[in-house]
Specification:
single chain; 6-stranded mixed β-sheet; about 15% strand; globular; alpha/beta
């Protein structure tokens, strides 16, 4: 298992959790972004920089992804593509996307897109809270513990 991070939109606090987990679990964490990022020194951390453009990082993650890998993303279409490749997808708030819930999430995302397109102000997600960080860390630990068995 490798961990792939949709890094352009990933909160710094979540990256920090992933950096610590990479060293603790000795697991490869690859951040994919269209901008240069500073990574702490570690043999388990790597950056793949892609050109700017719509969904370029997402497409690169899907290309490199193997079954059983884990993708960290809030991007629902990317999560759906990961699940279609028999990988796992976890959002920065600790919610695991599954075959059972991803279609519903896609439908809601598309509905909200239509609302925004028609001029309705929908607002964005709430700021990442300490509870969200803890939920992410707990979900990540659970996924990594299953890998170790």
């Amino acid at each position: 298992m490798q961990i792939w991070v949709d890094a352009d939109a990933c909160p710094g606090a979540i990256k920090d959790i992933l950096f610590r987990a990479a060293d603790r679990e000795r697991i490869q964490v690859t951040l994919v972004a269209n901008q240069a990022l500073r990574l702490p020194p570690s043999p388990y951390l790597r950056l793949v920089q892609v050109p700017p453009g719509f969904d370029v990082a997402d497409k690169r993650i899907v290309e490199l992804l193997a079954p059983g890998d884990l993708v960290i993303t809030a991007d629902i279409p990317l999560a759906a593509a990961a699940i279609d490749k028999n990988a796992h997808a976890l959002n920065p708030r600790g919610e695991l996307y599954t075959k059972d819930n991803i279609r519903e999430r896609l439908s809601m995302r598309n509905f909200m897109d239509e609302l925004r397109g028609s001029g309705v102000t929908t607002g964005g997600p709430a700021a990442l809270s300490q509870r969200d960080r803890q939920a992410f860390a707990n979900s990540l630990d659970s996924i990594l513990a299953k890998r170790a068995r």
